[in-house]
Write a structure and sequence with these properties.
The chain is an alpha/beta fold. It is built from seven helices and 16 strands.
Length: 270
């Protein structure tokens, strides 16, 4: 059992939970994730690590309510137990001194990019953060991101906070003004696709974290397969980070839409 220590609502459908998980906290590295099963009848689902404390033995997860399991987790409170929590999983972010790194986070992807920014800055990089959401009330972790970046650019689609527009627009404006040695983008697949399109134009190496559907986290089930550089890869063991310029985005988006349709059908069943 993994007890929930704290729970906080960050936005309308976005929640933060701090979970006691000593073994995971001691081994966690930026870019990795865990797979949860809330109870014996629950499904497995992945969440990227937002923060952790090896000394105190806790991890922080940020979730958006999109299906049955995330809805159930959002209803749990401090003192409740999660049945299974496996991790850390996935290949961690490659951390070294690249120079100037632009880190782009959209929606709940902000939570995933937070530890990446921190690790890159600790390695000596100058880190520019670009984070965005549809509106100010959906923009999360602003203070946490400001603490791990040298410069933080805020965007909202409706202009209610920061720059009006999308994070990809802010990224393009940044690259017009100054060079970057690396861009890391985490968020909705469509956002990462367009971020990669922007950086391709400026010839900037780009990494993305693929939020594919996952089940076992070992590469055995094949659910999270994607195509990168013309080859089949599995996001759970080969990723989740890949070269954004080599991902087959149309195939990935098609697969994600298929799962979305199946989830909607499942919800409609009695």
């Amino acid at each position: 059992m993994f007890p929930i220590l704290e729970k906080e609502q960050l936005a309308e459908t976005v929640y933060s939970v701090i979970v006691q998980a000593e073994a995971v906290a001691k081994r966690a590295i930026a870019g990795q994730f865990v797979i949860l099963r809330l109870d014996e009848t629950g499904e497995r689902f992945p969440l990227t690590l937002c923060d952790w404390s090896p000394e105190e033995g806790w991890i922080r997860l940020v979730l958006q309510v999109v299906g049955r399991s995330t809805h159930k987790l959002s209803r749990m409170e401090a003192g409740d137990d999660i049945l299974d929590l496996v991790g850390p999983l996935g290949r961690p972010t490659e951390i070294c001194d690249h120079g100037h790194v632009a880190c782009v986070g959209g929606g709940v992807g902000i939570a995933a990019i937070h530890p990446v920014c921190r690790a890159l800055r600790q390695a000596g990089n100058r880190v520019t953060g670009i984070i965005g959401a549809r509106s100010a009330d959906l923009l999360i972790l602003e203070e946490e991101m400001a603490a791990v970046t040298d410069e933080l650019v805020l965007t909202t689609d409706d202009g209610s906070r920061g720059l009006k527009g999308r994070v990809t627009w802010a990224l393009e404006e940044l690259l017009k003004k100054e060079s970057a040695d690396l861009v890391i983008a985490i968020g909705p697949a469509i956002m990462m696709k367009f971020a990669a399109a922007v950086t391709r134009e400026f010839k900037v190496p780009t990494r993305v974290s693929l939020n594919s559907i996952m089940l076992d986290g070992t590469g055995m089930c094949g659910t999270c397969r994607c195509e990168v550089a013309g080859k089949t890869r599995f996001a759970c063991v080969d990723g989740p980070e890949f070269d954004g310029h080599e991902v087959d985005w149309n195939l990935l988006l098609s697969r994600l839409d298929q799962y979305k349709e199946e989830e909607e059908i499942a919800r409609s069943l009695p």
